[in-house]
Design a protein that fits this description.
The protein is mainly beta. The protein has a single domain, classed as Beta-galactosidase, Chain A, domain 5, CATH 2.70.98.10. Strands 5, 11, 12, 14, 15, 16, 19 and 20 form an 8-stranded antiparallel β-sheet that branches. Strands 6-7-8-9-22-18-17-13 form an 8-stranded antiparallel β-sheet, with no helix packed on it. The chain has a 4-stranded antiparallel β-sheet with strand order 1-2-3-4. The protein is globular, with a radius of gyration of 18 Å.
Amino acid sequence: MTLTELNQRFAISNHVQFKEIADGIIIAEISNQHGNCNITLQGAHVATWQPRGQEPVIWLSPYAKFAPGKSIRGGVPICWPWFGPHATDAKLSGHGYARTVQWEVLETKALPDDTTFLRFGLVESDATRAQWPHPSPAQLEVTIGKTLRITLITQNNSQESFILGEALHTYFNISDVAKMKIRGLEGCDYLDKVGEPARRTQQDAIVIDSEVDRVYVDTEADCVIEDAGLKRAIRIAKSGSRSTVVWNPWTEKANKMGDFGEHGYRGMVCVESANAFDNLVTVKPGETHRLVVEYSLEAI
C-alpha cells in the first residue's frame, strides 16, 4: 500500500497520519490529547511514546538508524517467534525476524475518550516461511491514551502445536541509570548472561552499575522503574508473559554497537515482557496466545 493509500484509508484527523521518514520507512504519527507516539510499519515498531506534559517514557537513540531490514536502536522491538538465538540454526537472526520485516496496517480508530487504537499484521513471505513454517498469523494492537497498551497476538492455524519464544524488548527513558531502581522482581530466579551463565536469585531492588543481561523466570509480577532524577515511576503491568528481561549494555558493549552515542546507555534501561528459556509457550492448533503490556506513570 502506498503512502497516499495509507493516508486515504487509515489516517484520522487529529489522531493518525502516515509519513515517510527514510527511503522505504513509513511511520504512523499518533497525536491526541493524552500524548504522542510514533510507530514504524517495519517491525510494527513503537519508536516513541511521550505522554502530554511529561518527558518521553520510551527511549529512542538519537543515533538510531532507519533502513529497510535493519533493527532500530530503542523503542519497542518485537522479538518473535523466538527469543535469543534460534534453537537449531545459528545462521538465523537472533530474536526472530518480526522486528525487521514489514507489517501492514489493519485498523485505526479514535476511541470516545480521545485515545487512539491501531492494529497491525505481520506480512508473511517466502523468506519468513523458510524460517518459521507454521501458519501462525501475528498481529500487534497498540492503544495510546493515558497509558500505552500493547498486545502481541499469535494464532496457530496449523494442525500441530508449536513452541513460541517472544518479547517486547522495551527501552525505557530514564534520567540516569545511577538514579533509578527496578522493583517487583525481588525473590525471583534469573539466568545471569554476563560472564559465565549462572542461575541466581534476586534479593533486593535492581540497581545497575555495570553490564546487566538477566532473564527472570516464572514471574508475572508488575515491575516499577523508580526514577529519582525525573521524580516518577514507570509501571510495567503484563499478562500472558512469564519472563522479564532486564538489560543495559554498559560502556564497552554500547560503544561497540555504534548507535547508542557516547553515554546513551546511561539514559535507558530495557525491561522486557517475555516468554523465554524456562517459559516458552506451547500454542496448540486453533489456539491464540496474547502477550499484553501496559505502561503507565506514577509520581514518587
